[in-house]
Amino acid sequence: MVWSIFDYENSFVKVTREEVNKIPFLKFKPNGYEGGLPTIIYYHGWHSSKEFKRFEALAIASHGYQVVVPDALFHGERDAIDHDNPENLEKYLWDIVLQSVEESREFVEGIIDNHNCDPSRIGIMGSSMGAITAGGVFPYNSNIKCLIGFSGSFAWTESIKMGQLPGENEENKRKIELYDPMNNKDKINNRSILILHGSEDRSLPIDGQRVFFNEMKPLYNENLDSFQFIEVPNVNHYITTEMLERSIIWLKENL
């Protein structure tokens, strides 16, 4: 895969570089909107950064949403490491995910207080590592209304057992169990969730999301429209135009 940044300006969306609690992020704000905006916090994946999510964020913002894309630890402006080294994935993945979860409350509060965010209309989404992150941030923040995950896992411990995510070390084991979305049913119950995943994903196979969906589905018996799992056939570990389109449609219905 060739990594490139979409850096063209958009007449309908203003893009600015901001910070909350020393966390750098790009803010995509649609022009012509005043007051509190429905806001999406979008977590990027491994080997990515806030800049690499510009095109997707612009597409979402053009539909009337403010989109906030922070740099994760060891990515972008936050002491980036060599992401091509597989040893670094094993060593740092959970440090990065857990750091994002634990700093998320103050980050969300900062977005609400200083960035024209409607506190009753906050969504969170992520791709790959960012989807793992978003899955942990969601139950940790009760003021987030909905969650979207592209090509990730909301079944952390099960995905580790299946060998699809790096094993936890002793320092992180307790935190992984604490923040694992599968262990927080009471905090997730009936809050809107959309999962999109390629059926042929070879980087982070779809099995973990199937486990999560089947485990959580009984909680949504009376509200299945707000809990959806879309398996995209013949797609590997990336976001298709269809997946992005489906996410925007779903946001229109749930945020």
Description of the molecule:
By secondary structure, the chain is an alpha/beta fold. Helices cover 36% and strands 22% of the residues. It is built from nine helices and eight strands. The protein has an eight-stranded mixed beta sheet, with helices on both faces. The radius of gyration is 17 Å and the shape is globular. The relative contact order is 0.13.
Q: Keywords, please?
A:
255 residues; eight-stranded mixed β-sheet; 8 strands
Would you spell out the secondary-structure blueprint of this structure?
Elements: E1 13-20, E2 23-30, E3 37-43, H1 54-61, E4 66-70, H2 86-102, H3 104-114, E5 117-127, H4 129-140, E6 146-150, H5 156-161, H6 170-179, H7 185-188, E7 192-198, H8 207-216, E8 227-232, H9 241-254
Parallel strand pairs: 3-4, 3-5, 5-6, 6-7, 7-8
Antiparallel strand pairs: 1-2, 2-4
Helix pairs in contact: 2-4, 2-6
User: How helical, in percent, are the residues?
Assistant: 25-40%
Backbone shape: globular
Run of helices and strands: EEEHEHHEHEHHHEHEH
Low-confidence runs: none
Strand residue percentage:
15-25%
Return Rg in Å: 17 Å
SS summary, helix count = 9
- Strand order, main sheet: write it out: 1-2-4-3-5-6-7-8
- What does the average pLDDT come to? 95
Biggest sheet, open or closed, and with what strands and sense? 8 strands, mixed
Total strands: the figure is 8
| Helix/sheet category | alpha/beta
Distance between the termini: 33 Å
